[in-house]
Structure of NAD(P)/FAD-dependent oxidoreductase:
Amino acid sequence: MTTTDPTTPEPHAGKKVLERDVVVIGAGISGLMTARRLTQAGRSVAVLEARERVGGRTWSDTIDGEFFEIGGQWVSSDQDALKALLRELGKETFQRYREGDSVYISRDGARHTFQGDFPVGESTLAEIDRLVEALDELASQIDAAAPWEHPRAAELDRIQFSSWLHSLSEDEEAIRIVDHYIAAGMLTKHSHTFSVLQAMLMVASAEKFEHLIDEGILLDERVVGGMQSVSEQIAAELGDDVVHLGTPVRRLEWAAGEEGAAADGQPGRVTAHGDRVTVTARFAVVAVPPNLYSAIEYVPALPRPRLVAHQHQSMGLVIKAQAAYPTPFWREDGLSGTGFASHERVCEVYDNTVAGDEHGMIVGFIVGERAEDIWALPEEERRRAVLESFAAYFGEQALEPIAFYLSDWGSEEWTRGAYAASYDLGGLSRWGHLQNEPVGPLFFASSDIQGAGYMHVDGGVRIGTDTAARLDTAFRAAGVEPALLSV
Ligand SMILES: Cc1cc2nc3c(=O)[nH]c(=O)nc-3n(C[C@H](O)[C@H](O)[C@H](O)COP(=O)(O)OP(=O)(O)OC[C@H]3O[C@@H](n4cnc5c(N)ncnc54)[C@H](O)[C@@H]3O)c2cc1C
């Protein structure tokens, strides 16, 4: 049913009013996956998306004639849910270029090339192994879907990850390397700002530390046409009647089912007020990153524990820097394009060339305070600073790209950081158990509150599928068969 709402003083005249089984807020992979599975189960759905595009933190675009992955792009070899979806959609993938030597720049500025283990001393290598063993041992005790249930959860959540590493080792280089993978590489926060429990969730979500550091596993494949095309295809199959762009949801009015407050997760009544569309439904799925929950007004307000909990999840900050060149010139020097230098402005780099493209591309990452420093520079200086860092890995040729792009997720209103949201010290053990619980008819879905595949596209696929299944169960338990409410 589609009508025009005559009452609301919204900015868009002729605003649509829809009635659906479920309204999904956010057309990132989590929201779209929820909608895909629900419609496949015969439920009617509307997806309201703030931006004028789908895909959220996946975004593929051509800039100055070059193809850029501005957001999430890599498919890890162990990400079964995403890989199954790619097969379902008939999407093709290609492997990241990885032949040749990697580059390691040590703290004294010396540049080394290597294959296999980092070119550090034997004792540092042994110390890295020991730290990784300690991490894996602890992470093996953690259920990524419920880290707060670990018997020592509260204690582990009080200890800064940086302090914990220093309590285990005196080898600064080993600590810096292990720290780098979790702090700069994943959570994109400084390791004194998050806990051991939060770090263990990261490890447990990928099963073991090796899956986060072995770029052969982690950065295995890319999607032909770009990662955003996954969301675009899902949205196209759902159709314009389901996916509504340019429609930020400002207010969610909700009422629990007949059982009142006890009816959590049961069909109730929800009205989602978006700028262009208002949707009334039996359930809402809030599929936005947790740091944005508070940007929506809830009527009535969410229960106090949720309002408090939502203040404890924040986005990390990383700049994804990319430069395109006439050729992948580093390959002629026998280099794979992979490089690490934890003290460099750009702390890690990879060959980001699209398979078959004669142009070459380098991608690098600038994390936390260094990212803030970079954004504080005038544009030309900023570009120069990043390219000089690329040149430290690959030589002077890196200073002359044919296209250059810095992903600025921190200034995107509908994201506000990158890659993802995580808890502050003590937050995960105190508030984590609430994150996947519905409030009345409101469900929450984001890669940032998912166990396996946490903070990754794979996690979005998983939580979307899971949320749709939970809603279908709730509908059936309430005796609401598919299509009964469909319009
Ligand atoms: C730079 C970068 C690199 C990354 N690299 C990788 C990678 O290589 N591999 C990988 O697997 N993952 C990667 N990730 C992470 C991955 O992209 C995310 O985990 C995943 O895309 C999150 O999906 P989501 O649907 O949960 O959230 P999002 O993609 O954030 O989607 C949420 C959607 O909600 C919308 N929204 C927000 N508020 C409202 C509102 N009030 N009303 C309506 N709509 C709203 C947003 O516009 C957005 O479209 C990367 C992320 C970034 C930023």
In short: The radius of gyration is 23 Å. The chain is about 30% helix and 20% strand. Residues 46 and 290 are 21 Å apart (CA to CA).
